[in-house]
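queue> pop job 88
queue> type: inverse folding (structure -> sequence)
queue> payload:
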């Protein structure tokens, strides 16, 4: 016979009890530098367009460009806030400054894991892990900014767990 017993919400584990490991600091610095370069280029192009191609009354809008340095800082803070946790039965990701999110992926729902490395990642000896959930064609989440050896060890651990539980 089917039964559906109530769960006492006060007995559920608190999400604050998860010990998240922060991403590599060099990843946050690299993202900060890239964001600084892009915002500088954007500011220069916008300034040139407004200064030479648009009417003089538009030049007062250039004061809005003074807000551009906030973007690299937000990028850095966002990267420093991001973290991951590898536990007995799942892997979790925390991210966000203003819109904070936390994703927990149980090992029994793992479809496959990809190790990704772009040119900047290779230069800085970093890697990212893309975690795919069973039943979806897209990634559940990506953990960027891991040390390459750490990413490979986590990937191998997930594959080992997947082969024993799957």
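queue> result:
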């Amino acid at each position: 016979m089917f039964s559906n017993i109530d769960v006492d919400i006060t007995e559920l584990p608190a999400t604050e009890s998860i010990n998240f490991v922060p991403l590599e600091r060099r990843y946050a610095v690299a993202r900060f530098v890239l964001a600084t370069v892009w915002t500088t280029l954007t500011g220069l192009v916008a300034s040139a367009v407004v200064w030479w191609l648009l009417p003089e009354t538009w030049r007062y809008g250039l004061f809005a460009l003074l807000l551009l340095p906030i973007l690299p800082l937000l990028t850095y803070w966002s990267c420093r806030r991001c973290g991951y946790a590898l536990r007995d039965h799942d892997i979790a990701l925390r991210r966000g400054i203003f819109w904070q999110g936390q994703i927990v992926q149980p090992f029994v729902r793992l479809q496959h894991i990809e190790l990704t490395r772009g040119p900047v990642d290779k230069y800085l000896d970093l890697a990212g892990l893309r975690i795919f959930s069973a039943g979806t064609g897209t990634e559940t989440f990506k953990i960027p900014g891991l040390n390459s050896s750490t990413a490979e060890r986590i990937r191998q651990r997930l594959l080992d767990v997947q082969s024993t539980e799957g």
